[in-house]
């Protein structure tokens, strides 16, 4: 039986752009697609660090990788408590969010050799919060020339590593060692 050339049928050009996200297969394979009303930031700490993409756990807050990163190493810092905005956080939560953010910056600088950061919180859906009900701070590592034509022209972001690989590297470099 002759072998067919896949170029004739496997990649027929069309108008769709493909962004491969193999890390999302766990939701499909394990039937774990969260309900729309479920809070991913309340759910993550109940999972293993690997499944929840958690890199560090504190007493009042924790740090995890963003499932939909802007750049490789994009972290989020969240309080465990389901609270919507910064002004509702306790002084202990605010202090630990700040401490975890500082540590994340040091670790990302070491591991990813980033040259800067975008750090911020979107408070409320109208301000752009994807998960408006649970406070979370973004820590986005940046490099010179990390913006190119892909996101602008092709509406596609290229990420060089799988989330699990990035999580393992960051967690291994975290000063307190592996998260609990």
* CATH topology-level fold name: HIT family, subunit A
Uncertain segments: none
Number of helices: 6
Mean pLDDT: 81
| Number of structural units classed as domains | 1
Total strands = 5
Tell me which CATH architecture applies here.
2-Layer Sandwich
Chain oligomer state: single chain
- Briefly note the structural class of the backbone: alpha+beta
Q: What's the helix-strand series?
A: HHHEEEHEEHH
Cα separation of the termini:
55 Å
Considering the protein shown, what is the CATH homologous superfamily?
HIT-like
Largest sheet: 5 strands, antiparallel
Residue fraction in strands: 5-15%
Order of strands, widest sheet: 1-2-3-5-4
Rg over C-alpha atoms, rounded to the nearest angstrom: 18 Å
What does this structure look like?
- With 180 residues, this protein is an alpha+beta fold.
- It has one domain: HIT-like (HIT family, subunit A, 2-Layer Sandwich).
- 29% of the residues lie in helices and 14% in strands.
- The protein contains six helices and five strands; from the N terminus they run H-H-H-E-E-E-H-E-E-H-H.
- The chain has a five-stranded antiparallel beta sheet with strand order 1-2-3-5-4.
- A hairpin with a 3-residue loop joins strand 1 and strand 2.
- It is globular.
- The N and C termini lie far apart (55 Å).
């Amino acid at each position: 039986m002759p072998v067919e050339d896949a170029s004739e049928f496997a990649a027929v050009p069309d108008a769709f752009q493909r962004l491969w996200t193999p890390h999302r297969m766990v939701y499909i394979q394990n039937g774990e697609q969260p309900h729309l009303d479920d809070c991913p930031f309340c759910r993550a700490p109940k999972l293993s660090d690997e499944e929840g993409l958690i890199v560090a756990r504190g007493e009042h807050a924790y740090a995890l990788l963003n499932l939909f990163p802007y750049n490789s190493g994009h972290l989020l810092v969240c309080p465990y408590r389901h609270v919507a905005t910064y002004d509702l956080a306790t002084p202990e939560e605010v202090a630990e969010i700040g401490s975890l953010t500082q540590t994340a910056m040091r670790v990302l600088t070491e591991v990813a050799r980033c040259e800067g950061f975008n750090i911020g919180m979107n408070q409320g859906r109208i301000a752009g919060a994807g998960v408006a009900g649970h406070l979370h701070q973004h820590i986005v590592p940046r490099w010179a020339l990390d913006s190119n034509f892909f996101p602008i022209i092709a509406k596609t972001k290229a990420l060089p590593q799988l989330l699990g690989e990035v999580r393992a590297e960051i967690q291994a470099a975290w000063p307190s060692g592996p998260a609990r």
